[in-house]
Design a protein that fits this description.
There is one protein chain. This protein has a three-stranded antiparallel β-sheet with strand order 1-3-2. Helix content is 51%, strand content 6%. The chain is built from six helices and three strands; from the N terminus they run H-E-H-E-H-E-H-H-H. The chain is rod-shaped, with a radius of gyration of 24 Å. Helix 1 crosses helix 4 and helix 5 (108-119) packs across helix 6. By secondary structure, it is mostly helical. The chain starts with a helix and ends in a 5-residue tail after the last helix.
Length: 143
């Protein structure tokens, strides 16, 4: 899991657990210590707020047990999560095919023919596969 994906998964976990709890906070018993450490790092980025002593005292009264640690999303964390859940998915890196695709290597004359083919898109009765024109346009020659 990449760093960005890890951040989103932590933010998502905090949001979901806070919603289930009803008070917006994720408590110490709901996250493992390594995840709590990730949350602590996100606090430094302004994405997460850790409960202060007064908040922990209120949460302890609500939970009828001592709450030693609690966290929730800041408005910036919420916006980051919202963007992360709705952002366009990145194309696979060069050399890595999408699950339903397979990379191919073409010699220059084959690539030229493919460029002509996708250039005829408006005049063809059966258009090229969706996204093919963009892939051809952004293809890079192998060296």
């Amino acid at each position: 899991m990449r760093g960005w994906e890890r951040v989103l998964s932590v933010l998502e976990a905090l949001w979901e657990r806070g919603q289930v709890a009803g008070h917006g906070w994720t408590l110490d018993t709901e996250l493992l210590p390594p995840h709590q450490q990730q949350v602590n790092a996100l606090e430094n980025q302004g994405l997460v707020e850790l409960a202060c002593r007064e908040d922990r005292a209120e949460l302890s009264a609500l939970e009828e047990r001592p709450v030693r640690w609690a966290a929730r999303l800041t408005p910036y964390g919420h916006d980051t999560l919202t963007y992360g859940q709705s952002r366009p998915r990145a194309e696979p890196p060069p050399g890595e095919a999408a699950p339903d695709r397979q990379p191919v290597e073409l010699i220059p004359s084959q690539m030229a023919a493919l460029r002509v083919f996708v250039g005829l898109t408006g005049r063809l009765r059966v258009p090229p596969a969706e996204g093919l024109a963009e892939q051809v346009r952004t293809a890079t020659p192998l060296r």
